[in-house]
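Example record

The entry below shows one chain as it appears in the dataset: sequence first, then structure tokens.
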Amino acid sequence: MRATVGAATGAAAENGRTGQARLPFTVALGPYHLSLEWRDATAMRDRRRLACLNLDEQCIELRRDLRGMKLAEAFLACLIRLSHFSKGCQQGCVEEAYAQGFATGMVEFALRNPQAWLWFNLLLSEHLPGHVGYDRAVRGALAQAPSMPRRVLVGGMPVSVRGISRSQTGNAFGWYDFERREVQLYVGLSGTNLPIVALHELTHAVHHAYELRPRDTHQRFQRTQLHGWLGIMRDNPGAWRWLAWAMSFPAQAHAHTRAQPH
């Protein structure tokens, strides 16, 4: 995987810088293989949107005038919708299904689409304040492996993160404690289990922060995940570096990593 990401770096970096460069990749998720296409607003499947999933034409439509974080946001919105759809999560699903659909979809996207994954993290790195270095985490170019954060700001609220023993996990690999606003992760997590469980439990924290109800609409779950996770990427560079690295190199990921101060 390192070789694949390295070979894609030049083209992905150019696309990240210009925004309007031709997107030389497809997005594979579940049974879908979708090309990315720039389109004028008048040619969009839904002219009200900045980006559209067009499964009939097997493409993701991006409005031609998108730039910077607007482009990153529009792409992530499509990725969230595609994750839910490919996992069979639609109107009427319970919160657990939405959290798992997002978590498994994001990890699958990172592993199956290294070039698109790097491009997305380059966009974030170039247009978020500070030197967040998300693209360096995805390329494996950090001096040392990122560490699990102790705290994550979610919707402006601090959520603590801590490891728990096998005897504390019960019948799960992780929990979100609503009363404490605390994500609990089994310390033995490794491989793809680590980012999937971490994303899943943090997504419960997102739902909590935005006061989602158990039977809220499909669209509200999608909007909440979009704004909640964009906020995490913006406000928690250490946490997103850790997650992006764990998604990119699951063979090296382990929950025993030293906790990192916020």
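Notes for this example: The longest strand covers residues 32-39. Strands lie at 26-29, 32-39, 51-54, 59-63, 151-154, 157-164, 174-177, 182-186.
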